[in-house]
Fold:
Amino acid sequence: MAVRVFSVVVLVLLLTATVMAYQGFVRAEFVCMVNDRVMGVPQIPVEVDGKIYYGCCAGCVGTLKNDESVRYAIDPVSGNRVDKADAYIVAGPQGLALYFETPENARQYLEKLKK
Structure:
């Protein structure tokens, strides 16, 4: 029974990740949240106050742990402050990571790019 439940949970997570990637979203583990760059490989996870952030090197890990301001961004659509660990992330121009507070804001931004 437990194996079956685990299998269903894994399947749901994989399907969610696939749909999000198809819609232009980027998985957080592929973003250096200090340099705000989408990377081609998973980054180093950094736990701070029960949340997971990602950095590309030891320097970024230290910055994420010690500088609260780097763990936040401004949603380009709403202008609101967003915790990067909770954000919906989209790859912007030149691989820049953009953080949104809702998937609707991210989709709105992506639609503007298509025009």
